[in-house]
């Protein structure tokens, strides 16, 4: 008998936490882009559909980055039409990553209504990932945001290396705040604070959030994106929830890493996040059993077990 059938986790709410958390599912994009093998388009589409069937309402579908840089997602034009009906029939948001105006053109041509940019808080990562300085990358994003907003498209921006950088070490908080403010002033609807190499700790998370608030960036516009390199992702998520953050990025089965930061391990697993949130009495709208089955299904297609502890526990057979 699985633990949910026994009524576990036991629901014991904690004070001063959001009543509901929006899970921003990144497995189909951030997860699969880091796989050595290229997953067939039809399997990706089925993955997205299964994720939606589990109750996830925001599922990042793909990336319109040049195929040379992310060959695993070179099929964006073929994939997006296979899942775009979910936005109409089920109200599922299907954001896509766009690196520049060309990427925006490709996304808009297929009817995308939610796009995401990929900024950096450090010069080293901006150079490695975007081949630009931080300021040059911000200048590149300005017309993308302007055009998207003119077309009433929702714009999110990821900010990588908010807590530590594999080349530069600790990242000064004021440096992160400067980039975040520039993106908000540009017109971004929301920001995702990325712990790309997984070095954040709870006090660091809460201090950064407080500094952003002091500089005029509201908590309501912020999401968090943690990697579990040092086992801190759930602790850091709880610290963010205690501050009032109610959007958390996660990847089904714990898929993913970062092709430009070799020390980055998997994203926070969506199942591990849902288990914690259910125990806290926080609503997610996600059916944990269906989500776990989806991650087991995808792990079989990838030829390796899911790194998620919750997936392992719930799918264990005596």
Model description:
- A hairpin with a 3-residue loop joins strand 7 and strand 8.
- 42% of the residues lie in helices and 14% in strands.
- Helix 8 packs across helix 9.
- The chain contains 13 helices and 11 strands.
- By secondary structure, the protein is an alpha/beta fold.
- The strands form 3 sheets. The chain has a 6-stranded parallel beta sheet. A 3-stranded parallel beta sheet has the order 2-1-11, covered by helices on one side.
Summarize model confidence as the mean pLDDT: 94
- Helix-strand string: EHHEEHHEHEHHEEEHEHEHEHHH
The assigned structural class equals: alpha/beta
Count of helical segments? 13
For the report, how would you describe the main beta sheet? Answer: 6 strands, parallel
**Strand order in the largest sheet:** 3-4-5-6-9-10
Short recap of the structure:
With 318 residues, the protein is an alpha/beta fold. The protein has helices spanning 27-31, 41-53, 76-83, 85-89, 101-109, 123-130, 134-150, 173-186, 202-214, 233-243, 270-279, 288-302, 309-315, and strands at residues 22-25, 58-59, 62-63, 96-97, 114-120, 154-160, 164-165, 169-170, 190-195, 222-226, 247-250.
